[in-house]
Amino acid sequence: MKVAIIAANGGMFDAYKVFNIASAAAATDAEVGIFFTFEGLNLIHKEGHKQLPMPAGTEHFQEGFKRANVPSIEELVSMASEMGVKMIACQMTMDVMSLEKEHFVEGVDVGGAASFLHFASDANITLTF
Cα separation of 120 and 71, whole Å? Predict the structure, then answer.
């Protein structure tokens, strides 16, 4: 199975959705690729993914995450990378935001939409967050 995910939003809840699904799919031996674009680049930014915003009024989730022993976003990013999830940072968005590959966590590739479309062209599941 092949799973293609587009991460276009950069909040805490977006990160949990993206990395939980990516890791779950990778655990079933699926080939998984995530294309990070616009605010989604925050999810793999070396500093940005450590301080992702939560929607106003949802602060109580932080306690729930701790109580349920939910891994941090930093841990989820690392797990996804170790599981072989392909992570592609959008070159165009990086150019617009004056970002370089060095700004992102280890294991991230840089590519354009065409690179991701090639990967996703035969995906069994395609998701956008």
Answer: 28
Angle at 105 between CA 12 and CA 101, to 5 degrees: 115
pTM of the model: 0.95
Q: Where are the domains of the chain?
A: 2-128
**pLDDT tens, 18-58?**
999 999 999 999 999 999 999 999 999 999 999 999 988 99
Nearest to residue 112, comparing CAs of 85, 93, 86, 84? 93
Neighbours of 45 (CB within 10 A): 21
- Determine the Cα–Cα distance for residues 120 and 4; give it in Å rounded to an integer: 5
Task: Centre a 10 Å sphere on the Cβ of residue 107 and count the other Cβ atoms it contains.
Answer: 15
Give the CA distances from residue 13 to residues 10, 39, 45, 53, in Å, rounded to whole numbers and listed in that order.
Answer: 8, 13, 16, 9
Q: Round to whole Å and give the CA distance between 51 and 47.
A: 7
CATH fold of 2-128? Hypothetical Protein Ychn; Chain: A, (3.40.1260)
Instruction: Decide: helix, strand or coil at residue 104.
Output: strand
